[in-house]
Structures are given as C-alpha cells and as structure tokens.
C-alpha cells in the first residue's frame, strides 16, 4: 500500500501570524478532522509545544482512528450514549500502536475488501503464511514509538471523555467518569516500558580515528571531497566542523543568524525562535531546548569568516541566516540531510547531524573524565553546553560508561584480595 492511500494525513500549515500548525486531514474530504483540530488548538498548543511534537501527536491519532474504524467504533456516538471502549477494543488499539501506519491502513483495507466480497470467515493456511511474511518485512515499530503513541492516545481519549462528561446529565456523568478512568488505566498498563538495558555503555558517535578521516575528507582541497564548487565545499566543511566542535542539533545550526555570532567574544548565541515570520521555510528549523551561549575556537571562527565572505556574495543581503543553499536561500532540513547522505556513501561509517552531536558529547565526556573531573562537574558541563534542563537525564548517558569502568575496576580489586585455593595455572 502506498502512503497516498492512507485515509488520514498530517499536513503542516502556516497561519497569517507565522505559526506553523499541523492539522489532521481526512483524505476523502480534504478537510481537517474536527476533534483532532479542536484538541490541538485547545490543549496542545496551549502547552507551547513545538510543531513537530504536535505533528507526532496527530500521527498517533491516525493509528487510533484506524483501530477504531477496524473495530467499527463511532467514538462520538459511544460517548453520547454514556459508553466508552471495551477491553477487546482497547487491546486492538494497543496492537495497532505496535504497527506502522501503513500496516494498519493495509489491514483495514484488507478487512473492508473481505467484507465487500463476503469471503468465508475461515482463513486459509496460505493466507496466514502471507500475513506472517508481511509482518516480517518491517511492519512492527519499536517499543519507544509504541509507548509515545499510547501516551498521546491516552491524553486524547481522556480529553474526549472529559468533553462528554461536561455535557452529560447527572445519571450518565458518574458512569462516564468511571469508564474514563478504567480506559486510561488499561491503556497505561498496556504501554511498553522502555528500558536502556541493551544500550548501557554503547557508543552512538564515531571514534577519534574516524573523526580525523571525516575532517580530512571535507577539506576543500582534498581530492576525495565529494562536492564541486568553492562555496559548497567551504560551506559543507564548516557545517561538519560546527557539528563536531559545538554539539549542535540540526535545527539549531539551520536557525542561526549571522548576527548571533559575537566576533569580539568569540561566542555563538543559540536561540529559540518558534513561528518566526522572517523564516520563509514551512518546515522551520529551530532550537529544541534552552537558549545558550557557546564558545567558538579561533580555528572555527577563521573557517566561518572564510565561509561568510562567499556567503555574502551569494546572498547579497536577502536574508540573515548563516547556513544557506547554493541559491542563497536558507537551507532546508532535507538539504542538510542530503549533505550527510553523500558523506555516508563516501565515508564509512554512517554520519549524520545527530551522530556528530553524540560524538561531540562523547569526546567532551572522555576529555573531562581524563582530566579527573568528578561526575557532578561533568554532568553540569554537559547540561550547559547541550541546552538540557537541570533535571534532564540525557547528559547521564555519556557518563554511564565511566561508571561501568569504575565498577569493573572495583570488582577486579576485590577479587585480587581473595585467596583462591589451587588456582589453575595461567596460560601464556
């Protein structure tokens, strides 16, 4: 099934005030879904959520709507009658959250087609095998995605129930309140618990040797440089170096203005500018977390100056964005991704802005650990440079490896103090 045949789609629109607002469209009519739009406007938008976060919530509603259609549930009619969802229907919603949107849409199409043809309810062994084969081709999503979907679905269903409760009479109200809580608890119990058991101590960045090779490849005079043109080569060299030297997110780098850099202090200001009227891009890149000031080394500053000279000639004052495409327009997220697609083909292992951000923090944590900084100081430095909140657990992933190493050293030290009787001889 192609994505175009899915009955719902999420579209990003730009309002007259510059706000980027995702909406859930019904493909058959081309109109926004009323309840989803009201939920976004009255609940999600008031939380000052990023547009991509709202879009993720709406994509979760697509999964819910497909599951409800499969179960032949009209939620509005149910709530108006003082009813909600049955345990079997909650189970179907939970199962749907573990599949891709296209897999759910295809299952719904197959169900409708089977009903139209009035086929036998007995499923053949061959058809069962075909379904098993299709599931093996990547229809499942990971536990983290399923957990996020169920979280948004719980929030939406509670919101829908609360609306019905506010309109209900006294006789129905108490029943709806009880059903709302039961459904929410059941969905919470079916939400996968995401753990880090398989990722403790795992590196997500590239090692130092690979970093040296990468920085060498992007030098404009290197014969292995995969791009042509002085401007493109110099710009891409600056982009790669900026990710590795500053630990920026993709949206943060693409949202930087020329005026955000202070040449006297050698500092770069990272700011959140949601729904910026001056940004012509519909998919607006932006800082994800806290505003912060980052120090810029002399070498990176010198590289930026050389890039800015070529950029000014190309842009000619049309915009203030630091990173621009070869047309002079602000670079889009997809254009930035293509730079790293080219690099990944030319340069193994795979590299991306996200991988280079991880690499920066792994480098920083390693260097601070070697300088004998304690864990508290390391976490504080990572938190400030990464733009995380003080209660975020994200910086801790970069110190887990050190804790694991110290635990291993302590274990070996304890074992060395033990007297093992009749130990076997050591093999050379």
Please provide a brief summary of the model.
The protein folds into two domains: 3-189, no CATH class; 200-428, hpI Integrase, Chain A (Orthogonal Bundle), CATH 1.10.443.10.
Topology:
Elements lengths: L7 E7 L5 E7 L4 E2 L1 H11 L6 H20 L4 H6 L6 H10 L4 H17 L7 H11 L7 H25 L2 H20 L18 H10 L12 H17 L3 H5 L6 E2 L4 E4 L21 E4 L2 H18 L17 H14 L6 H18 L4 H12 L13 H18 L11
Antiparallel strand pairs: 1-2, 2-3, 4-5, 5-6
Helix pairs in contact: 2-4, 2-5, 2-7, 7-8, 10-12, 10-14, 14-15
General description of the model:
The N and C termini lie far apart (61 Å). This protein has helices at 34-44, 51-70, 75-80, 87-96, 101-117, 125-135, 143-167, 170-189, 208-217, 230-246, 250-254, 298-315, 333-346, 353-370, 375-386, 400-417; strands at residues 8-14, 20-26, 31-32, 261-262, 267-270, 292-295. Helix 2 crosses helix 4 (87-96) and helix 2 (51-70) packs parallel to helix 5 (101-117). With 428 residues, it is mainly alpha-helical. A three-stranded antiparallel β-sheet has the order 1-2-3. It has a three-stranded antiparallel β-sheet with strand order 4-5-6, with no helix packed on it. Strand 2 (20-26) and strand 3 (31-32) form a beta hairpin. It has two domains: 3-189, no CATH class; 200-428, Intergrase catalytic core (hpI Integrase, Chain A), CATH 1.10.443.10. The mean pLDDT is 86.
């Amino acid at each position: 099934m192609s994505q175009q045949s899915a009955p719902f789609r999420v579209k990003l629109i730009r309002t007259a005030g510059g706000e980027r607002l995702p909406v859930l469209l019904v493909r058959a009519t081309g109109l926004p879904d009323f309840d989803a739009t009201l939920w976004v406007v009255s609940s999600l938008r008031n939380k000052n959520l990023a547009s991509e976060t709202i879009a993720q919530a709406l994509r979760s509603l697509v999964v819910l709507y497909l599951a409800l259609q499969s179960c032949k549930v009209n939620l509005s009619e149910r709530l108006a009658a003082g009813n909600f969802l049955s345990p079997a229907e909650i189970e179907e919603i939970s199962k749907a959250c573990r599949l891709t949107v296209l897999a759910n849409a295809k299952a719904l199409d197959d169900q409708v087609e089977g009903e139209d043809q009035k086929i036998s309810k007995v499923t053949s062994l061959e058809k069962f095998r075909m379904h098993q084969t299709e599931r093996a081709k990547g229809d499942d999503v990971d536990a983290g995605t399923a957990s996020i979907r169920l979280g948004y679905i719980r929030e939406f269903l509670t919101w829908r129930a609360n609306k019905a409760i506010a309109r209900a009479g006294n006789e129905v109200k108490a029943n709806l309140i009880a059903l709302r809580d039961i459904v929410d608890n059941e969905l919470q119990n079916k939400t996968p618990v995401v753990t880090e058991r398989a990722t403790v101590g795992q590196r997500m960045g590239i090692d130092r040797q690979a970093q040296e090779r990468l920085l060498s490849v992007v030098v404009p005079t290197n014969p292995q440089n995969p791009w042509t043109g002085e401007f493109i080569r110099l710009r891409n060299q600056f982009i790669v170096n900026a990710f590795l030297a500053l630990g920026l997110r993709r949206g943060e780098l693409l949202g930087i203005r020329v005026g955000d850099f202070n040449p006297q202090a050698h500092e770069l200001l990272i700011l959140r500018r949601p729904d910026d009227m001056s940004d012509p891009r519909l998919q607006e890149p932006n800082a994800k977390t806290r505003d912060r000031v980052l120090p810029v080394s002399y070498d990176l500053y010198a590289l930026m100056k050389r890039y800015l000279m070529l950029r000014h000639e190309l842009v000619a004052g049309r915009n203030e964005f630091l990173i621009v495409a070869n047309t002079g327009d602000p670079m889009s997220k997809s254009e930035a991704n293509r730079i790293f697609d080219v690099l990944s083909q030319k340069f193994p292992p795979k590299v991306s802005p996200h991988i280079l951000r991880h690499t920066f923090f792994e480098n920083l944590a390693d260097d601070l650990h070697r300088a004998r900084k304690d864990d508290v100081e390391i976490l504080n430095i990572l938190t400030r440079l990464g733009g995380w909140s003080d209660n975020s657990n994200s910086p801790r992933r970069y110190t887990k490896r050190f804790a694991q190493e110290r635990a291993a050293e302590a274990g070996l030290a304890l074992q060395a103090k033990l007297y093992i009787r009749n130990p076997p001889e050591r093999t050379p």
